[in-house]
TrEMBL record:
<dbReference type="InterPro" id="IPR043129">
    <property type="entry name" value="ATPase_NBD"/>
</dbReference>
<feature type="transmembrane region" description="Helical">
    <location>
        <begin position="216"/>
        <end position="237"/>
    </location>
</feature>
<keyword id="KW-1003">Cell membrane</keyword>
<keyword id="KW-0472">Membrane</keyword>
<feature type="domain" description="GspL cytoplasmic actin-ATPase-like">
    <location>
        <begin position="44"/>
        <end position="178"/>
    </location>
</feature>
<dbReference type="InterPro" id="IPR025691">
    <property type="entry name" value="GspL_pp_dom"/>
</dbReference>
<keyword id="KW-1133">Transmembrane helix</keyword>
<keyword id="KW-0812">Transmembrane</keyword>
<dbReference type="Pfam" id="PF12693">
    <property type="entry name" value="GspL_C"/>
</dbReference>
<protein>
    <submittedName>
        <fullName>Type II secretion system protein GspL</fullName>
    </submittedName>
</protein>
<dbReference type="Pfam" id="PF05134">
    <property type="entry name" value="T2SSL"/>
</dbReference>
<dbReference type="InterPro" id="IPR024230">
    <property type="entry name" value="GspL_cyto_dom"/>
</dbReference>
<keyword id="KW-0653">Protein transport</keyword>
<dbReference type="InterPro" id="IPR007812">
    <property type="entry name" value="T2SS_protein-GspL"/>
</dbReference>
<keyword id="KW-0813">Transport</keyword>
<keyword id="KW-0997">Cell inner membrane</keyword>
<feature type="domain" description="GspL periplasmic">
    <location>
        <begin position="214"/>
        <end position="364"/>
    </location>
</feature>
Length: 365
């Protein structure tokens, strides 16, 4: 529903009683009319009296509202005796096929009085339209109609209050077609739905109230909760997949470890059991293989030395019985083993049959 609320003719008088008329329009046309405050809950479009607003048409820049308004102010200043500070200028949309755009010039004081009067009546109109702009733009000549109890005239590039002498002077014999009943109601309904020129611009623009849409907030909260639940479910699925994969890997590791243990051994702790078997196989310390390999490498590096006996103890020590051509070579062999990173204990070497024999005990340093 949209209601056209007609302001009384003449400039606002704070001391005079407020005489408002209104017409209510819907999808089927005009639904009701009356006087006083309009019904609550409707879109209200206020209508400024034609005698208080001067209308011009000019080809203005269309790139932005600010540029069009600045150009319109210059034109209004040239055509008005009042200073620009006392005037309010508003720019509308041009008609189809015409580059000219309507310009409304009204006193700033009148705008303040109108809005104050409407606010006192509990009305905050979505738009404030000059009365002549309620009529359609004629292809030729002029339209005449009575809206809100006041006669108005609309031409292609003009709009004013219908006064006998002024009308005859401006129309200059051009045809003036009256608009009544159905055509007028259709024109008023179209103007109420989409005003061509709105005086509520600039300093008088309608302030938007910040309203909290609780339905939207609840809907967003539901969507947010659903997203959190889905994300949580995805995380749970991933954790379950990771747990199953870890169990699979552990089972494979246990099966692989079982192949390294003696056949028939009960599998309790694969890591510990493999460590125990490794110690049993390679021996304590650095192990039999590592220690023996390092010892024989040192013996090969000292010519004239040989091993006559070898023994690996359960403490990880390697006992070597060696024979050398002379005693100095035994000392050289001991130094070579120590250089390889071992701790070496030497027994007393004895000379027998032209050979020097003795025992070296090699252990982890």
């Amino acid at each position: 529903m949209t209601t056209l609320l007609f302001l009384p003719p003449g400039l606002p008088d704070p001391d005079a009683p407020v005489g408002l008329r209104w017409m209510r329009f819907g999808d089927t046309g005009m639904l009701a009319r009356g006087e006083g405050t309009p019904p609550e809950g409707d879109r209200v479009v206020a209508v400024a009296p034609a005698d208080a607003v001067t209308l011009h048409w000019a080809d203005l820049p269309g790139r932005s509202v600010a540029q069009a308004t600045a150009a319109a102010r210059i034109l209004a200043a040239e055509a008005s005796a009042a200073t620009t500070g006392e005037l309010h200028v508003a720019v509308g949309e041009g008609g189809a096929g015409s580059p000219d755009r309507p310009i409304a010039v009204v006193g700033a004081a009148a705008m303040r009085e109108w809005l104050a009067m409407l606010a006192a009546a509990g009305v905050d109109p979505i738009a404030l339209v000059p009365a002549p702009m309620l009529l359609p733009q004629p292809d030729e000549g002029y339209y005449r109609a009575t809206v809100g109890g006041v006669g108005v005239i609309r031409g292609r590039t003009s709009g004013f209050a219908d006064e006998a002498q002024l009308t005859e002077l401006v129309t200059a014999g051009a045809p003036v077609k009256p608009l009544v009943r159905d055509p007028l109601e259709r024109a008023l309904a179209a103007a109420a739905a989409a005003p061509v020129l709105d005086l509520r611009q600039g300093a008088f623009a309608r302030r938007r109230k910040l309203a909290i849409d609780w339905r939207l907030i609840r809907r967003l909260a539901m969507y947010g909760g659903a997203i959190l639940l889905v994300s949580f479910a995805i995380s749970l699925v991933r954790l379950a997949k990771y747990d199953v994969a870890a169990d699979t890997v552990n089972a494979r590791a246990d099966a692989l470890a079982a192949t390294g243990l003696p056949r028939g051994e009960t599998l309790t702790d694969p890591d510990r059991q493999l460590d125990e078997r490794g110690r049993r196989v390679i021996g304590p310390g650095l192990g039999f293989t590592t220690t023996t390999a390092a010892a024989f490498a040192a013996i090969r590096s000292v010519p004239g030395t040989e091993v006559t006996a070898i023994d690996f103890t359960d403490t990880g020590e390697l006992r070597l019985t060696v024979a050398t051509e002379r005693e100095a070579l035994a000392t050289d062999l001991k130094n070579a083993l120590e250089a390889a990173g071992f701790r070496v204990r030497a027994s007393v070497f004895q000379s027998n049959g032209g050979r020097v024999t003795g025992e070296l005990t090699v252990s982890r340093r």
